[in-house]
């Protein structure tokens, strides 16, 4: 029993808003198969030309590859580091725990522009050239809180008595971690890793400040927005990548919920 | 999951595979370690990483905001000064922009909440078995690339964009409307759109926690649906609404990408000016001071938010 038994108005509202939410995405897709270089109604004709031209654009493909590399590296590092913090947060007691957990969650809150500027200063002062490495480092920082939350909540759901039993039976702590704890939280780690990957892959605010001569895909896309005739090709790749990241997120959700 | 099956090695097969070798190595390495030693192995890497690439950069920015100017090496001795803060405090336009950004963020958060509340309500009470599917359907736009969704709005709002060409095609207007893109309204519209699914989540979590028997009790006592909503549902969902507000408001104040794409020079927010001082204007000390103001403001907001909301309640 809930108030307002008639659900039709609410349902219509839900689907109306859903339609609005999908509208820009549909526009992007239409734009990528539209024969004209700008999107206007009525459509002039449909084409797959932009998708064919995609692979011929070397700089574009290189930027996409750069994004994949950065996302792979930073998501792996974030998963390892975030899992370490999660283990400490749930399974250990120590004086500086509050500080460490605060430090690991704050990147979620600090505005990206502030973090971008701060890292920009760090690399400038240390005379480190900006590159894909500096972008990757920034992405580990912003992806770490996601890993901590996902792995931490999974870990909190498990009774520590399993680990105690293993240790009572003579396993040392590293063995217990490897044989009991890690297998237990493995699905959460996979989900966290995929989440971290997509966080990095889409990230623009930090990358714009920290990418050197080799842009990641979002930075390259931003740079190309001025050239209207290049836009359909960019959008075509964007649509493909969007499908790719969306698949990853859906897999991550599946893995997380399958527990 | 609780027991690992013990696989006997095939008889006569003494070859050391790489997997075996690595396993032996790790076991040997971990053999002498107790829980305390493992603690340090788990503790030091994240601490050092976060220290080097999160804490130190922020402290560096703090230090930089006290530099009188850009001249000279950072590591050489320099006289700290409050010049940047004095300049910032005495220039009205920066405060006005910060205030405008705050107002925009407030309007955006409230709008996103108002628009997403009915959705959360529908999902919590009327979606039935299909709630999982409906939720995913709502979240897919949120999971697609942020930059692309913002760019899609640029394509829709531009002079040769979807909305203009559609209106011209329909014969409603003759000349394209130029007021759609590159102003504050475009930024506000785009950000409300971006945040709707996100704002729905904490509200949904709060609604799902409401004990359904409360409604039966209220109905038994003769409360009409509208009163049930006002006296039970709304008050009990307020923690979720508050959480949604802060989850949208805090990142929106610090926004600089959306104004960059759809705002143009007339739609700039405070974050865009910070960006300018590190790129075009190249005045890092002043940009650092502006950045410190934003960081401090954000941390104060978070402190207020954590006082008002019990985060653990919502995460469960």
Task: Quickly describe the structure.
The complex is a heterodimer of chains A (259) and B (316). By secondary structure, chain A is an all-alpha fold. Chain A contains eleven helices and no strands.
3D architecture notes:
The complex is a heterodimer of chains A (259) and B (316). Chain A is built from eleven helices and no strands. In chain A, 74% of the residues lie in helices and 0% in strands. The mean pLDDT of chain A is 88. Chain A is globular. Chain A has a single domain, classed as MetI-like (MetI-like fold, Orthogonal Bundle), CATH 1.10.3720. The two termini of chain A are 30 Å apart. Chain B is mainly alpha-helical. Chain B has a domain of 180 residues: MetI-like fold (Orthogonal Bundle), CATH 1.10.3720. In chain B, α4 crosses α8 and α12 packs antiparallel against α13. Chain B is globular, with a radius of gyration of 27 Å. At the A-B interface, α1, α3, α4, α5 and α6 of A face α1, α2, α4, α5 and α6 of B.
- Architecture of the domain at 83-129 and 183-315 in chain B, according to CATH? Orthogonal Bundle
Sheet-strand content of chain A, in percent, reads under 5%
What is the C-level CATH assignment of the domain at 83-129 and 183-315 in chain B? Mainly Alpha
Biggest beta sheet summary of chain B: none
CATH class of chain A: Mainly Alpha
Stretches with pLDDT under 50, minimum 5 residues of chain A: none
Helix content of chain A: over 70%
Q: Could you name the CATH homologous superfamily of chain A?
A: MetI-like
- Fraction of residues in helix of chain B: over 70%
Overall mean pLDDT of chain A: 88
Individual helix count of chain A: 11
Give the topology string of chain A: H per helix, E per strand. HHHHHHHHHHH
* Rg of chain B, alpha carbons: 27 Å
Largest sheet geometry of chain A: none
How many DSSP E strands of chain A? 0
Distance between the termini of chain B: 24 Å
Basic shape of chain A: globular
What is the distance, rounded to the nearest whole angstrom, between the alpha carbons of the first and last residues of chain A?
30 Å
CATH fold node name of chain A: MetI-like fold
């Amino acid at each position: 029993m809930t108030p307002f038994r008639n659900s039709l108005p609410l349902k219509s509202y839900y689907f109306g808003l859903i339609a609005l939410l999908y509208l820009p995405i549909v526009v992007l897709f239409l734009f990528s198969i539209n024969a004209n270089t700008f999107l206007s109604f009525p459509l002039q004709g449909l084409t797959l030309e932009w998708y064919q031209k995609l692979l011929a654009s070397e700089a574009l493909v290189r930027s996409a590859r750069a994004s994949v590399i950065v996302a792979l590296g930073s998501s792996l590092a974030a998963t390892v580091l975030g899992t370490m913090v999660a283990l400490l947060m749930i399974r250990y007691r120590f004086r500086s725990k509050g500080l460490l957990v605060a430090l690991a969650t704050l990147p979620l809150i600090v505005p990206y522009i502030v973090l971008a500027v701060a890292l920009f200063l760090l690399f400038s002062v240390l005379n480190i050239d900006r590159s894909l490495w500096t972008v990757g480092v920034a992405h580990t920082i912003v992806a770490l809180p996601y890993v901590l939350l996902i792995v931490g909540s999974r870990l909190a759901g498990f009774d520590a008595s399993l680990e105690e039993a293993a240790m009572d039976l003579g396993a040392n702590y590293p063995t217990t971690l490897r044989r009991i704890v890690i297998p237990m939280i493995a699905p959460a780690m996979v989900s966290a890793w995929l989440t971290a990957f997509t966080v990095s892959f889409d990230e623009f605010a930090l990358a714009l400040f920290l990418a050197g001569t080799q842009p990641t895909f979002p930075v390259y896309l931003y740079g190309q927005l001025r050239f209207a005739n290049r836009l359909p090709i960019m959008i075509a790749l964007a649509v493909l990548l969007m499908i790719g990241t969306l698949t990853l997120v859906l897999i991550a959700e599946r893995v997380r919920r399958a527990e | 999951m609780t027991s690992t099956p013990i696989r006997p090695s095939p008889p006569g097969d003494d070859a050391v595979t790489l997997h075996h070798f690595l396993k032996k190595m790790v076991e040997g390495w971990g053999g002498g370690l107790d829980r305390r030693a493992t603690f340090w192995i788990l503790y030091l890497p994240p601490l050092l990483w976060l220290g080097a690439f999160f804490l130190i950069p922020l402290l560096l920015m703090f230090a930089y905001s006290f530099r009188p100017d850009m001249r000279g090496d950072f590591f050489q001795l320099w006289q700290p000064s409050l010049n940047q803060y004095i300049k910032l405090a005495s220039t009205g336009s920066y405060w006005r922009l910060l205030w405008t950004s705050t107002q925009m963020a407030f309007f955006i958060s409230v709008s996103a909440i108002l628009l997403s509340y009915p959705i959360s309500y529908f999902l919590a009470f009327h979606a039935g078995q299909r709630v999982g599917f409906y939720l995913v359907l709502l979240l897919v736009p949120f999971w697609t690339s942020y930059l692309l969704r913002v760019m899609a709005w640029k394509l829709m709002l531009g002079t040769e964009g979807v909305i203009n060409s559609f209106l011209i095609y329909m014969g409603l207007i003759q000349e394209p409307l130029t007021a759609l893109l590159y102003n504050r309204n475009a930024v506000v519209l785009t950000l409300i759109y971006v945040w709707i699914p996100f704002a729905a989540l904490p509200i949904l979590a709060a609604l799902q926690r409401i004990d359904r028997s409360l409604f039966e009790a209220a109905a038994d006592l003769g409360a009409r649906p509208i009163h049930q909503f006002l006296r039970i549902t709304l008050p009990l969902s307020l923690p979720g609404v508050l959480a949604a507000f802060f989850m949208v408001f805090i990142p929106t104040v610090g926004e600089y990408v959306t104004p960059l794409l759809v705002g143009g020079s007339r739609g700039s927010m405070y974050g865009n000016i910070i960006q300018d001082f590190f790129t075009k204007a190249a005045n890092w000390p002043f940009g650092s001071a502006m950045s410190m103001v934003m960081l401090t403001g954000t941390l104060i907001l978070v402190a207020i938010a954590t006082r008002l909301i019990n985060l653990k309640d919502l995460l469960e």
